[in-house]
Structures are given as C-alpha cells and as structure tokens.
C-alpha cells in the first residue's frame, strides 16, 4: 500500500510542474527599476528643475513608449500642456532610458507599447496602459496624401505656343483596400514658342503658368509586400494664364481635362503612432510616374499634355484589435 501511495505521489509531483510550464499569459513590459525608477530616470535625463515642476503643478503628461521584442525603446511621445523646450527634453530623455524587460505573450517576447500618465502633483505615475501591437490589425480604409514634381511637353494645337514644361502636383483623398479616390491639383510653367492670339481687351501678356485640377480613381496591383503598380484615371479642368485684360483681371485659356497616370510605388518606410486614444500606422512610398492629359477647350490650348516625374505618397491607417 505504501508503495502504491509513493508511486501516486511521485506521479503528481512530476506532472504538476510539467503542466505549470505551459505559459498562456501575457506579461506587460517592465522597467528594470520599476515605475519609480522610470520617473527618476526621466527626471534626471531631462534635467528637470524645480521651476519646471512648479509650472507643471496640477497638470498631467501622457508618455507613450514603443518597446521592441529586445526591450529597446524604439519610439517615444510626450503629450501635455508643456513648453516646447521641456517637451523636447523629455522626449530626448526617453531615448536614454535603460532597456525594458520586454512584454511576453505565450512565453515569447513581443513588441508592445508602454503608456503612463504622469501627475505632477507629487511627480508619481498614475495608471499604466500597455498595448500589444501584434494583436492589432489595420483598418481597410485610410487617408492618402501625395506630393510630386514633373517635367513634360505638349502635342497638338498647344504645341505651337508652348514647349518644355515643369511643375508640381498635389493629391489628397481616401484609400481603401487596393483603391484610391483623390482630388488632384497641378501647377507649372512652360517655355513659350510664339505669342498667343489674344483678344482685343488684353493689354499685356501674363506669365506662362498653367494648372489642372480634377478628381481621380486609382487601382493598385500588388507586386510584393512593399511594391505595387498603380493606375489612375481622372476628369477635371485646366487653365493657362494668357494675359491681363483692361479691367485688370486675368484672361485665361482653358477647358475640359481627362487624364491618366501609371506609377510604380515603392514603400520606403513604415511607422506606428500610439496615443492614449488610438493607434495609427503611417506608410511612406516613393513613386515614379507618367501622366497623359487630353485638353479640350479653346482652340489655342487643345492638345495633349504629357509628363513624367516622381512623388512622395503617405497613407495613414487606423488600427483595431483582432
């Protein structure tokens, strides 16, 4: 009987530790010297003075850190009613913090955020909120902003007046899945070949500026994780500053514009912004492109306007928990 009891005891003594080794928990990132040590280091590294503390009496600062799997502080943000100098010093101090004990999920180290609200009534931290970024996914829709420059030329009636041209373009809109709807605007100047045949009320020639505007739809065709081919079609209008009329107003040639674009977007960077209320992902692209515009309006400005250039594209997506 004693032998049976001893066997059962040894079985449970070996089985219980084995079960206990199965780790399904999520452990938050920790500063090696604790919350108080984090506050002391931020205070020391930012060279905070008693005067600084007096100005911050009764206020709160939100400090958010992005902690890597290795415990390194990758990014840090400070939000609060403070001077630009103190904000700069605090964010500089974040870069000098010691390595954290990284967050752990199911026994593995993971990237996470460490958020603390510092109250300067007694200069001690209040509640801490930590988000595990690996458990967040991008929303399907976001915002887009593009800025680029181009050089080009003309064909058709307008080529009798204008030659080589160059300028810049700006687009802003919404992106969803592999689609993009933009409002486009471009402005540039051109080399004049001959004088326009101007109306009698034009008293002087104007500059050689021209611009186009419109609304476009783009479709993305993914090549790999960081590259895509993008096509665009759009409709709008165009105008060319031709001269000044006797009343002092500007006389323009213009009309209807239909245009298309082909670009190759290369992702050159990605960052994640974490605030107390939300998480946003910023994607940065460089995209060489070619454009073709068909201008249909005044006889002297009819024709094709084509160009090639390069642009920077920024896409911003919110993120939700899985």
Descriptors:
8-stranded antiparallel β-barrel; elongated; alpha+beta; 322 residues; 4 helices
Describe this structure in words.
The chain has four helices and 16 strands. It is elongated. The protein has an eight-stranded antiparallel β-barrel with strand order 8-9-10-12-13-14-15-16. A four-stranded antiparallel β-sheet has the order 3-2-6-7, with helices on one face. Helix content is 15%, strand content 59%. By secondary structure, the protein is of the alpha+beta class. The chain has helices at 2-20, 34-45, 50-55, 84-95; strands spanning 26-27, 60-67, 73-80, 103-105, 108-110, 112-119, 124-129, 136-155, 162-176, 179-192, 202-205, 209-224, 227-245, 250-274, 279-297, 303-321. A hairpin with a 5-residue loop joins β15 (279-297) and β16 (303-321).
* Poorly predicted residue ranges: 1-13, 15-21, 122-128
If you average the pLDDT, what whole number results? 84
SSE sequence, one letter per element: HEHHEEHEEEEEEEEEEEEE
Largest sheet, if any? 8 strands, antiparallel, barrel
Strand residues, percent: over 45%
Read across the widest sheet, the strand sequence of neighbours is 8-9-10-12-13-14-15-16
Outline type: elongated
Number of strands: 16
Helix content: 10-25%
Multimerization state: single chain
């Amino acid at each position: 009987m004693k032998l049976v009891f001893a066997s059962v005891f040894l079985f449970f003594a070996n089985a219980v530790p084995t079960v206990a080794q199965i780790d399904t928990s999520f452990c938050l990132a920790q500063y090696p010297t604790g919350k108080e040590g984090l506050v002391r280091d931020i205070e020391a590294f930012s060279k905070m003075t008693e005067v600084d503390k007096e100005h911050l009496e009764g206020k709160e600062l939100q400090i958010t850190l992005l902690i890597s799997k290795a415990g390194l502080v990758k990014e840090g943000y400070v939000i609060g009613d403070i001077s630009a100098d103190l904000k700069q010093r605090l964010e500089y101090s974040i870069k000098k913090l010691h390595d954290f004990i990284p967050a752990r999920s199911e026994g593995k180290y993971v990237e996470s955020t460490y958020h603390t609200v510092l109250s300067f009534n007694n200069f001690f931290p209040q509640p801490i909120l930590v988000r595990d970024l690996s458990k967040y996914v991008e929303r399907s829709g976001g915002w887009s902003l593009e800025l680029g420059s181009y050089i080009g030329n003309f064909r058709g009636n307008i080529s009798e007046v204008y030659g080589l041209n160059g300028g810049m373009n700006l687009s802003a809109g919404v992106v969803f899945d592999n689609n993009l709807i933009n409002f486009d605007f471009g402005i540039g100047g051109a080399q004049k070949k001959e004088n326009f045949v101007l109306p009698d009320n034009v008293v002087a020639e104007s500059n050689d500026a021209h611009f186009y505007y419109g609304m476009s739809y783009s479709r993305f065709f993914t090549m790999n994780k960081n590259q895509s081919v993008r096509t665009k079609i759009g409709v709008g209008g165009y105008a060319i500053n031709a001269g000044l009329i006797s009343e002092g107003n500007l006389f323009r040639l213009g009309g209807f514009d239909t245009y298309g674009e082909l670009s190759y977007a290369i992702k050159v960077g990605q960052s994640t912004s974490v605030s107390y209320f939300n998480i946003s992902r910023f994607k940065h692209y460089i995209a060489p492109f070619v454009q073709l515009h068909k201008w249909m309006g005044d006889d002297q400005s009819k024709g094709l306007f084509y160009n090639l250039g390069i642009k920077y594209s920024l896409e911003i997506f919110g993120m939700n928990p899985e």
